[in-house]
Amino acid sequence: MSGQGVVPGPDGLLRCPWGLEAETMADYRVYHDTEWGRPVHGDDALYERICLEAFQSGLSWLTILRRREGFRAAFADFSIAKVAEFTEADEQRLIADPGIIRNRAKIAATISNARAAAALAPGELDELIWSHAPAPDGRPVPRTATDVAAITAESTALSRDLKKRGFRFVGPTTAYALMQACGLVNDHLADCHSRDVV
Fold it and tell me: EC number(s) (predicted)?
């Protein structure tokens, strides 16, 4: 992200600068306006976000966003119960699937993470993740992109707790991106039109 504050979109609404990157405006704008930062609950829904954030590591979020339906098709709509049953043959199928990012380590982690999630009680993954949400009034409201953290004490603790339960590709930066995307924190900039609707 650049260090700038909100920028006006083609509709005149002020947005976080990443939501209006020139080449990717439509994709990011819709994601920014309708999804990013809004609360996500449910074990399968949060498992999907953990997986997508892990696949994003080292890549642009747009790369993942544009393949999201391919990921959903490849990973049984991110059903924890179904992916936990994937076999070596499924892993080979996924490595050959052009609809996803064909990274062997990330594919293996996605399957392993389903097994870790399946070992938890129903609702426990949701409860675990949301237990790391900071108090909303305890954080300064970011005014520019440079005010937005990449790692926090809460994301470090979430990463540690997920790893203790066998999750992989969930470092503190990935955990913080998960927290931002799933509404545990509100990192829309102070003057962004989406800040007050999440």
Answer: 3.2.2.20
Confidence of residue 11 (pLDDT cuts 50, 70, 90): confident
Matching residue, tokens 């913080």: 176
Q: Which of 41, 67, 64 is nearest to 53 (CA)?
A: 64
- C-alpha neighbours within 13 Å on the C-beta side of residue 192: 30
Element (H, E) at 88: helix 88-95
Instruction: List Cβ neighbours of 114 (8 Å cut-off, separation of 6 or more).
Output: 47, 80, 82, 83, 84, 86
Residue pLDDT, tens place only, 118-172: 999 999 999 999 999 998 777 789 999 999 999 999 999 999 999 999 999 999 9
Point out the residues that are catalytic: 31, 53, 61
Distance CA 175, CA 181 (A): 10
Residue 156: count of CB within 10 angstroms of its CB: 16
Assessment of whether the complete model's pTM goes beyond 0.85: yes
Q: Name residue, tokens 């070596």.
A: 88
Distance CA 99, CA 129 (A): 28
Question: How far is CA 191 from its chain centroid?
Answer: 23
CATH 2.40.160.50 correct for 43-182: no
